[in-house]
Write a structure and sequence with these properties.
The complex is a heterodimer of chains A (251) and B (384).
Chain A (H helix, E strand, L loop, with lengths): L1 E7 L3 E8 L2 E9 L4 H16 L9 E4 L11 E2 L2 H12 L5 E5 L4 E7 L2 E7 L8 H10 L4 H9 L12 H13 L4 H23 L5 E4 L6 H11 L3 E2 L7 H8 L2
Parallel strand pairs in A: 1-4, 4-5, 6-9, 9-10
Antiparallel strand pairs in A: 1-2, 2-3, 6-7, 7-8
Helix pairs in contact in A: 2-8, 3-5, 3-6, 4-6, 4-7, 6-7
Chain B lengths: L10 H5 L1 H14 L4 E4 L6 H6 L3 E4 L8 H4 L9 H15 L13 E5 L3 H10 L5 E4 L10 H20 L5 H24 L9 H8 L7 H17 L8 E6 L8 H8 L3 E6 L17 H9 L11 H13 L4 E7 L3 H16 L4 E6 L6 H15 L1
Parallel strand pairs in B: 1-2, 1-3, 3-4, 5-6, 5-7, 7-8
Helix pairs in contact in B: 5-6, 7-12, 8-10, 11-15
The chains are: A alpha/beta (251), B alpha/beta (384).
């Protein structure tokens, strides 16, 4: 049996093919403006990657911010339920999931791949991938560089603004004060950690802790999380696909 | 929640009441009646009607008037306060006529509840005469009731001066009786929401309650009788996880969160809010001396601006049990400190009782609709 999960995220669209309960392949593409188009493209791409024809596909389940725009999906499910299921499959020992995506951050408490409780950040993009993207721009470095640069900092700058736009202004003031670039980078990551750690503590940490979503690919953030939570954080091989995988598993 | 295609005819009576009510107020004014505007449940209707005045609720639930209000009020302020004030400003500019009944009000009887409202009233007074009655912030204190009665006496003087009518005990007793009738009818309707497939959905009930202090008490009561009759006759298939909303008021025009909950498959069976149980739960004791009985009843309203407020937590737990609730959606307006801070203790109490909680803090804009949908979907999926 072949099922497909599509996670139409704010920044990237992910698709996972599941064949007889095994991952047959996946793809990650930028979402762009049109959720529907990105969903179609990810669908076609993942099928050709796996060499599977469309006629063989059983059920398609959509999740993510743009889930209701994926018209060809048979069903939709919230990404919170999907992540819990996907992480449950990849890391069965995980009971707490931190997901930081392009537009929001979530902390999910799970039991056997099912959601027990969850928290999600309020409307703005503070403490998300967007926050790092904007502020990296103010440092004139790429996102990847931000993470590696932060690792060498010995004296992280104190960034008090949670708001993405205000933090960008704060970065400019720090530059004017000749603060080292790596210290600003580390400070930015710490401010994200601070916000998400508060959510984790509010919900209660139940080991193991899994970290997923695009921001989990940033080594600086992972290291800072482990320090702040005082616990090793488990990462799936590809942290961005747990939502799509969960959707494919939930059909 | 699954829609069954059955409609309640009597709900149209509430929906269509707006133009008729405005004409009714205009007519009353021509006949020399005074119109009182209110913005809180702590101002007793009984006093206003006992002196022959009429009243309309002025709480704003729409985002359209907020931009106008922000010329005077800070952005970081509760949307209900901004929306209400914006209606006055807009009215004076007569550009949008967003809230025609504001222009008809002779006196606003306001109340010292939250700081945001109190300070807004100082500005409001420049446009419409505004009288603020004080409230004891520790209603369980020994002398709280005595103090509140004094405030009611002062309000009585103000109303008598405005209308030229005396408020007699007999009139007060009459008004108490009528108001209790309304409360009992609402209890009877809520009783029907306790069953497995309740005949009325939360979004429908909320629209009724949003009219409670806008319509005249007589008209509201008359419509409730018809609604109750219809509900008793009609069998409807309403299903889905049973949700109780708890938190800030949802003034007319504000349907965002309940609509999302029911459109995504939830079934709202109770509202612990000013547009819910807080508006009618306790009755005034008809045997006691009227002012004392009124004070007793109104001080029981468990508003989050009061201290301590254990009674609200107890009420939430009781309602959750009585209405067989699967999960609570704790609804707060942004910058409403009372309800936002109280959320933590309510959450702890619910956790102890094993009742799942989803907390949503929002305003009147549509900017967070998709995020709320995601959370509501996940919550409902979790409950199923």
């Amino acid at each position: 049996m072949i099922s497909i999960g599509i996670d139409a995220g704010a920044a990237t669209t992910k698709a996972v093919v599941l064949r007889d309960n095994e991952i047959a392949g996946y793809t990650i593409i930028p979402t762009g403006f049109d959720f529907r188009k990105a969903g179609e493209k990810a669908f076609e791409e993942v099928l050709s990657n796996c060499g599977i024809s469309e006629s063989k596909v059983g059920t398609i389940l959509a999740t993510g911010y743009g889930r209701n725009s994926i018209g060809f999906a048979d069903k939709t499910i919230s990404e919170i339920t999907a992540h819990a299921r996907g992480v449950g499959y990849l890391i069965p020992a995980a009971h707490t999931i931190i997901d930081i995506g392009g537009q929001d951050s979530k902390v999910i408490s799970t039991e056997n791949g099912k959601v027990v409780d969850f928290l999600m950040n309020d409307r703005c993009a503070a403490g998300t991938g967007k926050f790092l993207e904007y502020t990296a721009k103010a440092l004139e470095i790429s996102l990847d560089e931000l993470g590696t640069l932060a690792l060498v900092s010995k004296n992280p700058a104190n960034i008090s603004s949670m708001c993405t736009v205000f933090a960008e202004s704060e970065v400019i003031s720090l530059r004017a004060q000749k603060t080292k670039k790596e210290d600003i980078a580390a400070g930015l990551i710490e401010s994200i950690i601070l916000r998400t750690t508060a959510m984790v503590k509010k919900l209660g940490i139940k080991p193991e802790v899994a970290f997923v979503g695009g921001v989990a690919k940033n080594p600086g953030v992972v290291k800072a999380f482990e320090k702040a939570l005082d616990i090793a954080v488990l990462l799936p091989e590809e942290p961005q696909i747990t939502g799509a995988l969960g959707a494919a598993l939930l059909v | 929640m699954v829609e069954d295609g059955i409609f309640l005819k009597s709900l149209d009576l509430f929906k269509e009441a707006f133009p008729g009510r405005i004409n009714q107020i205009l007519k009353s004014k021509e006949e020399g009646k005074k119109i009182i505007g209110t913005l809180c449940l702590y101002v007793p209707d009984e006093l206003i009607y006992a002196c022959g005045a009429d009243r309309v609720i002025l709480c704003g639930g729409r985002s359209a008037t907020i931009a106008a209000a922000e010329e005077y009020l800070p952005r970081n302020l509760c949307p209900l306060i901004k929306s209400s004030f914006g209606s006055v400003i807009d009215q004076k500019c007569s550009k949008t006529k967003s809230c025609p009944h504001f222009g008809l009000v002779d006196l606003i009887v306001a109340e010292a509840t939250c700081d945001g409202k109190k300070k807004m009233y100082e500005l409001m007074d420049k446009y419409i005469p505004t009288y603020v009655m004080d409230l004891p912030q520790k209603p369980e204190n020994q002398n709280a009731q005595e103090y509140y009665i004094k405030e009611l006496e002062s309000l009585k003087d103000v109303l008598e001066k405005l209308t030229g009518n005396k408020i007699t005990d007999a009139q007060l007793r009459n008004e108490i009786k009528s108001a209790n009738e309304t409360r009992k009818l609402l209890h009877a309707i809520y009783e029907l929401r306790k069953i497995d497939s309740p005949p009325i959905r939360g979004t429908e009930m909320l629209k009724v309650l949003q009219q409670m202090h806008f319509l005249s008490p007589g008209e509201f009561r008359k419509n409730l009788v018809l609604l109750l009759d219809e509900l008793k006759l009609k069998k409807r298939e309403n299903s889905g996880p049973r949700i109780m909303i708890s938190g800030c008021p949802m003034a007319a025009g504000n349907m965002k969160v309940p609509e999302i909950i029911e459109n995504r498959g939830g079934l709202i069976v109770a509202e612990e809010s000013c547009t819910g149980t807080r508006a009618f739960w306790d009755l005034v004791d008809e045997k006691k001396e009227p002012m004392k009985a009124i004070a007793e009843r109104y001080l029981k309203i468990p508003c989050a601006c009061m201290y301590p407020n254990e009674r609200r937590i107890n009420q939430i737990l009781k309602l959750a049990g009585d209405f067989n609730v699967d999960g609570v959606v704790y609804y707060t307006l942004q910058f409403c400190h009372g309800y936002n801070v109280e959320k933590y203790r309510v959450g702890e109490a619910l956790k102890k009782s094993g009742i799942p909680l989803l907390s949503i803090e929002t305003d009147y804009s549509g900017a967070d609709t998709e995020q709320i949908k995601t959370r509501v979907d996940a919550f409902l999926e979790m409950l199923e």
